[in-house]
């Protein structure tokens, strides 16, 4: 798993290789990742001054971005002066709120006479500066930065509003510095969401202020934990780069690590999950835990998991079996009851629940219409859910599971969430992403 993660990080850091891969994939296309919606270019090479300044719209977020991209644009020292000395940036709202559906469109024009960026929000401006950084290359023969094939005129916006990579810090804890490096790497490919699978049955690294024993007893060690301030720090770091943080707290399965600190919410000392549906203590804890996560984050979407639930521990527990019988429920109906209560908790907090596709296959249109279905099984789930009016995130396993290293980037890139869907159904696919488990 460590080798897998290092492999992922190296690819993320070595952005030049990623751009080379794009060029190899289609030699006629420019070295811009991902390929813009529309572009035209010429044949003239323009030199770029390493002192290039971004002028125009100013805001706290944009000022930080200007500094970041100046460093990214010009990594080599001692470069010759160039003719392109400034880039005019015009942003309608340079302090826009980062939410699902925030406008990320931009235009970028680069020629011998100047550089211009226009965007509706700072997030579009970030993407424009990223594209500019991909166009600017260092010529080692002349010791100068250049943009080839000008004049460039680029108009771009994402096809999908949600473009994620899942990080699993339960199975493989990542220090804050590593998480920030990964978030930075997302911006190179204009990925705008980190799906933070922060806890699982292996460990519980999130330090809930309300229920501190969850991490104190459930983390791998005292050092492999995240404080509330750590999470806030990661969220703000990501926000400054236009990356949303969607946290997943998987319930009722994948929760064995909870039992070390709170055995009262688990079926028995020897059969730990799914979490106990027969006591309000379980849902009181979930509500407090989810509220803590909400307080540390800014996104309006909360992933409740809900996948791979084996109710065997419920039927083996005499008290839970008696409770199911008392309420005239099968174990599967108990699962539905549990999911319903957890969904209500998220909705009561004013957030939108997202869940893995097992919830769709079990309950279909019984689910609250606000629920977003996260497809990971191959099949017709996206078609069925969107046809019924539900929104979908697409991460079809195995090809979009990044821990399946046998699949090349070309295979991943060819995956299309809307194959077989009508235009109306496709409009309900908010996006998708690669899932890096372990």
Secondary structure topology:
Elements: H1 2-13, H2 15-25, E1 38-40, E2 44-56, H3 60-73, E3 84-93, E4 106-111, E5 114-121, H4 122-135, E6 136-139, E7 144-150, E8 152-156, E9 162-168, H5 176-188, E10 193-197, H6 213-218, H7 228-239, E11 244-251, H8 258-261, H9 280-296, E12 301-305, H10 312-316, H11 318-326, H12 331-348, E13 352-356, H13 358-363, E14 372-375, H14 381-387, E15 391-394, H15 409-414, H16 423-426, E16 429-436
Parallel strand pairs: 2-3, 3-5, 9-10, 9-16, 10-11, 11-12, 12-13, 13-14, 14-15, 15-16
Antiparallel strand pairs: 1-8, 2-7, 4-5, 4-8, 6-7
The main sheet orders its strands as 1-8-4-5-3-2-7-6
* Total DSSP E strands: 16
Low confidence ranges: 1-27
Rounded average pLDDT? 93
Overall shape: elongated
| Secondary structure: helix percent | 25-40%
- Global structural class: alpha/beta
Taking the sheet with the most strands, its summary is: 8 strands, mixed
Q: N- to C-terminal separation?
A: 6 Å
Taking all Cα atoms into account, the compactness measure Rg is 24 Å
Strand content: 15-25%
- Counting DSSP H or I runs of 4 or more residues, the number of helices is 16
């Amino acid at each position: 798993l460590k080798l897998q993660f290092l492999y992922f990080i190296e690819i993320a850091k070595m952005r030049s290789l990623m751009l080379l891969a794009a060029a190899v994939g289609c030699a006629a296309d420019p070295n811009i990742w991902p390929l813009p919606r529309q572009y035209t270019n010429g044949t003239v090479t323009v030199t770029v001054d390493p002192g290039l300044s971004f002028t125009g719209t100013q805001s706290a977020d944009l000022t930080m971005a200007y500094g970041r991209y100046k460093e990214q644009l010009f990594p080599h020292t001692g470069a010759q002066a160039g003719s392109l000395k400034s880039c005019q940036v015009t942003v309608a709202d340079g302090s826009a709120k980062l939410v699902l559906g925030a406008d990320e469109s931009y235009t970028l024009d680069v020629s011998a006479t100047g550089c211009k960026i226009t965007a509706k929000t700072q997030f579009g401006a970030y993407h424009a500066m990223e594209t500019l950084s991909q166009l600017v290359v260092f010529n080692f023969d002349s010791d100068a930065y250049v943009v080839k094939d000008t004049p460039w005129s680029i108009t771009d916006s994402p096809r999908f509003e949600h473009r994620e990579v899942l990080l699993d810090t339960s199975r493989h804890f990542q220090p804050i510095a590593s998480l920030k490096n990964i978030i930075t790497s997302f911006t190179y490919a204009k990925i705008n969401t980190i799906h933070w699978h922060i806890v699982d049955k292996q460990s519980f690294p999130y330090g809930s202020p309300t229920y501190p024993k969850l991490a104190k007893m459930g983390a791998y060690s005292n050092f492999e934990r995240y404080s509330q301030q750590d999470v806030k720090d990661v969220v703000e770091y990501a926000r400054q780069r236009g990356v949303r943080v969607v946290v997943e707290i998987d319930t009722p399965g994948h929760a064995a690590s909870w039992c070390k600190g709170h055995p009262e919410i688990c079926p028995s000392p020897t059969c730990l999950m799914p979490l106990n549906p027969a006591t309000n203590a379980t849902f009181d804890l979930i509500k407090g835990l989810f509220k803590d996560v909400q307080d540390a984050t800014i996104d309006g979407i909360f992933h409740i998991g809900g996948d791979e639930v084996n109710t065997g521990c419920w039927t083996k527990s005499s008290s839970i079996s008696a409770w199911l019988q008392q309420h005239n429920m099968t174990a599967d109906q108990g699962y539905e009851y549990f999911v319903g209560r957890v969904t209500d908790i998220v909705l009561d907090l004013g957030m939108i629940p997202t869940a893995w596709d097992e919830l769709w296959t079990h309950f279909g249109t019984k689910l609250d219409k606000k629920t977003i279905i996260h497809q990971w099984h191959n099949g017709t789930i996206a078609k069925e859910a969107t046809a019924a009016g539900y929104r979908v995130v697409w991460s079809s396993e195995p090809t979009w599971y990044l821990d399946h290293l046998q699949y090349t980037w070309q295979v991943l890139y060819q995956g299309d969430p809307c194959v077989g869907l009508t235009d109306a159904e496709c409009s309900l696919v908010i996006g998708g992403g690669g899932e890096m488990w372990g």
